[in-house]
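User: structure tokens for Methyltransferase, please.
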Amino acid sequence: MNDTSRRRRQRTGSVAVQRRWRKLRYAFAPIEPMSPNEIELVHRSAMSVLEEIGMRIQDGQARSILRDAGFRVDEPAEHVFFDAERVMELVAKAPSIATVRGLDPAKRVVMGKGHFALTAVGGPPFVSDLENGRRYGTFEDQTNFLKLTAQSDLLQIMGGTCVEASDLPAETRYLDYYLACCSLSDKPWKPLTIGHHRARDAIEMAKLWYGETEDQLAADPVFFLNTNTNTPLVLDRDIAQGVIEYARLGQPITVTPFALAGAMAPASVAGALVLQTAETLACCALVQSVRPGAPYIYGAFICNADMRTGSPAFGTPEYTFGAQASGQMARFYGLPWRSSNVNASNAPDAQAAYESMMSLWGAMTGQASVFNHGAGWLEGGLVGSYEKFILDLEMLGMMVACQTPPAITEAEIGMESIREVGPGGHFFGTGHTMERYKTAFYAPLVSDWSNFENWQDRGSLNATQRAAKVCKDMLAAYEPPPLDPAKIEALEDFVARRKREIVAARDL
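Assistant: Done. Predicted tokens:
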């Protein structure tokens, strides 16, 4: 470590420890609010939806694949009807664990069977911070979020575009995003699933980045893919194309319905759960029809609409129950499952925090296998917030710490320390305390537990203001990982060539 690196790490304090790699596992049994009879009712109802109502699949290739797999297709209406028995045969082919790896062999992520992974926010068009306010996202903002993700020991998967780079051409900016994922971190990354060409370009760049063939990438996956249906009961053409391309390469895919109860789903958690299950299992059937045994992750995103405004209401009790129940359904099918850390607040305030904690509590106690939008989500997903990103790291750190219960042993009890202090003393200076004071308790990233006078002397900063400072410190401390310059040059050449080709095709 050079002197500059040492000074940066000293200056950022607790941020410096964010470099180590964690393997995340649950320590306790999940909360399961539904009875076996209720699970069976949801399953039967979802199968009835698929058999009797079906889904509109807007991509002709996807319909052809499903027809060949044994499903009835109404071609003029783009409608596919899914036989329940055949769906279950295909779902049974998907594994119960999905893994992805980074360029660093140690950076391997496991999802399912009690293992879980965390990712950052993905996709908002806007960005906000205390200094500059709410604005359209730029490529600089996008790379800043990637740098923050790269430094976090909690966020194992890069990307999801973080925020849109609105200052770059819409048709080619995904290439800049892919290149940034490769050049700023050695963690696995999350490409886009919209259209054949975006998926194909991600695969070609992965071949260059890892120096491997497609068969090698398929044997040991490198991408986590998250995409969506158009609820209710529609799979978009471009989304289907991306799903098929990644499925052929055997990469872990989650297709997530947006089951907004009262708007895009029935006005009940039960109805939303049925619709969600039907849609994601139909997409699982598509993936397994393309490549049997490809990893598939049950997509879950149940929330309720605020019936006064029609807006999504995140972090509600309904969201929490929906997450816990989604976990039960995923386990019923033997699949890993995806949830999120979401809120509907317009500012990184108390509402954002308590709604996020409700979301996280539902997902953690339901034992989600992967958290999409784990850090930085604000305003119902329209905004990527710098301060909320840091506050989320604080909340995620606490939730993860709760999965490592404290040891209850004679040494930890410290009877000698209790005898030493006796009645009326204190434990600050005992040997038992001195052995543990650096590691005994959770080390906060943002929280300030000092008294009022000390807090006032340090500027009376609230949690959001402290988060803004931590964010700036982390960005100042960022250092890229050691990467092969020849690989980066090859990726840059690929991106430049593809941009020329895309622009030329557009101008024809």
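User: Anything notable?

Assistant: The mean pLDDT is 93.
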